[in-house]
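Researcher: Good morning. I'm working through a list of sequences from a screen, and I'd like to move beyond sequence-only analysis. For each chain I'm collecting a predicted structure so we can compare shapes side by side. This is the next one on the list. No need for commentary yet; just the structure.
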Amino acid sequence: MDQFYLKNAALYQTYVDKVDPTEPQLHFSNLPPQAPKTVTDNDNPNMAISVRIRPMLQDDITSGFPCAVYPRPHDPTAAHQTIDLHDLYNHPRRPRPVLRSSTHKLQTVFDASASTTQVYDEVVRDLVLSAVDGKLGTLFAYGQTSSGKTFTVTELQKLAVADLLDRQTELHVTIIELAGNVAFDLLNQREKIAVREDASGTTQLVGAIEHQVADKEQAFDLLEKAMSFRRAAPTLKNPASSRSHCICRIKVTSPGSPTPGFLYMVDLAGSEIARDVTAHGPELMRETRENNVSLSVLKDCIRQRALAATSKKKVHVPVRGSTLTKILKHVFDVEGGSDCRTVVIACVNPSLADVASSKNTLRYAELLGKID
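Model: Good morning. Structure tokens for this chain:
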């Protein structure tokens, strides 16, 4: 597929240059437009959804791949921001490839020029402040490998810790990894830990160590230490792809709150397609399958939780479907009354070479933000 894109890069760019960004992009170039998808007002009230588009890398440009992801100009009056995504399609009834485009609407879109500090200020700071107030805050970063997930989460963790320490809070940090459905403590030589429910139904990380943080330097050292123990393996797109979920839990004790708050910052494993992991051995293939299953369960839990909040009927939220959702059970607690705020940052690689994965990421993000 890469060779097809490279061979037709000039034609593709010609098509894209003619696109009117004010019109819904849901048609094949040179064919009658299809009816545009309608975007309903059934937003998930428990979830703030953002998209971050990473810059085109020099390798992308040198290889000859054009950009496929185009955010429209920011409209501060709009409830949603819009992204146009353009693909090239070998249509059986046309003598040459045609453009296949789609429009995606998300609550917040950060283009390639946005800094991580801007992301923090706009969508993460309030999450951190909720933990200062003794509540639960959870952040997920989702996307394929090489989309900027790990960079984004790591930098947001540093900003969050610095912000919390500036507010005279006491912090205890735990960082664990889920490789498939097996959990490891990344701050204790990657020792295996157990994920269990106690008598009250609360999920406990048995064997995981909490590290009290005295200052920013110590916190940053812990984050770097955790990264050094994280599972990585080569994929077609990334020679050192994170092949696991990484969960950073920060316990926040504040003088102004009678109970501690918790901040969970989750770097989800890459949402890989089959061709990207063909070099994996049997064990890594199994872990990749389990990772993909857990991402699917996570989506189901988020959507069922949103339905439960608005439905008069009892709605089943499948939190026991994966180890990931067991650990993050608080996000989906309907009857327990947990006060949890959640932010999702969908990270997107803008290169045409990764357009299929980028489309999947944007669709996943849209689904998380909607209630059926």
